[in-house]
């Protein structure tokens, strides 16, 4: 997932209920699918952030020495400014990029 190209809104917005439920015909099913996708996105973002921050990790036992790394701060600020995982999931849902299946209907 390329987070730099994300088109999801950063602020909270109101969506049309009919548009959200249209692919499944059931609003609760649509919300459940989006929630599961949001959890997947959150896991991906967290994993990517941890990998990037580990590059800056220094392992020393002294609590007195705290180093301020500007690159680390920039990485953290970038991830703070990203849209939230649920906003990304809703945008993917509306764009038709989320695939789903119901094992009970097959």
From TrEMBL:
Species in which this protein is naturally found: Flavobacterium rivuli WB 3.3-2 = DSM 21788
GO cellular component: DNA-directed RNA polymerase complex
Transcription recorded as keyword: yes
Catalysed transformations (reactions): RNA(n) + a ribonucleoside 5'-triphosphate = RNA(n+1) + diphosphate
Keywords per UniProt: DNA-directed RNA polymerase, Transcription
Protein name: DNA-directed RNA polymerase subunit omega
EC number(s) per entry: 2.7.7.6
Claim: Transcription is one of the keywords in the record: yes
Source organism, top-level taxon: Bacteria
Principal EC category: transferase
Species lineage: Bacteria, Pseudomonadati, Bacteroidota, Flavobacteriia, Flavobacteriales
GO BP annotations listed: DNA-templated transcription
MF (Gene Ontology): DNA binding; DNA-directed RNA polymerase activity
Similarity remark: Belongs to the RNA polymerase subunit omega family.
